[in-house]
Amino acid sequence: MIITGNPGVGKHTIAKLLAKKLGLDLIDINKVAMQKGVFEESAGTFDVDVKKLKKTLEKLITKNSLVVGHLAPYVVSRKQVKIAVVLRKDPYKLISIYEKRKYSHQKAIENLGSEILGVTYYDSINEFGSDRTFQFNATGKSVSTIVKKIKDLYVKGSFHEDEVDWLGLISEKNDLKRFFPY
Q1: Residue 113 belongs to some domain of the structure
Q2: Pairing verdict, β 45-48 and 39-42
């Protein structure tokens, strides 16, 4: 199982509890990249070598793994995925999270734009398939509610996918230039 989504949506918090409840081994993509040294530091950011990381993860992932990270659609092979859950969050709520994390304006805008356009969801569908990819709006939901919903999907195969339209939301508020200032 994969838990992915943009930074700040709650991936790691959800994944830790879910792995514990389901008895799955948690594999954190970011930690693996750091431990295996498959990245380069450039101008204060870390650029991951996705090909090397994908090869590394292929050896680590088993049927008993829960893999978490925003890079999942780019570094996890389709054949290793039964379910990919993409967590989504209202971009207006993400602003304060990125401020607390002291993201640069550019980094915040890039991540907010990605969330608004559903890039991770789209890329997950392309990589893992629409029959294995499910999105869930985590905005305003408790961790236990989200974990229960994902657990039901994993155990029972039942899941009602959330409709998410952040582009419509920011258009209604006439905020396109706020999030897409180019």
Answers
A1: no
A2: antiparallel
* Residue-wise pLDDT tens digits, 45-77: 678 888 999 999 999 999 999 999 999 999 999
The Cβ-side half-sphere exposure at 5, using a 13 Å CA radius, reads 25
SS3 content of the chain, % helix, strand, coil (to 5): 55, 15, 30
Residue of 150, 114, 127, 3 whose CA lies nearest to 54: 127
What are the pLDDT digits (tens) for 125-175? 999 999 999 999 999 999 999 999 999 999 888 777 889 999 999 999 999
Return the residue matching tokens 């550019």.
Answer: 106
Please give the tally of structural domains in the chain: 1
Q: Which domain holds residue 56?
A: 2-92+118-162
What tokens appear for 77 in the block?
């092979």
pTM, full prediction: 0.93
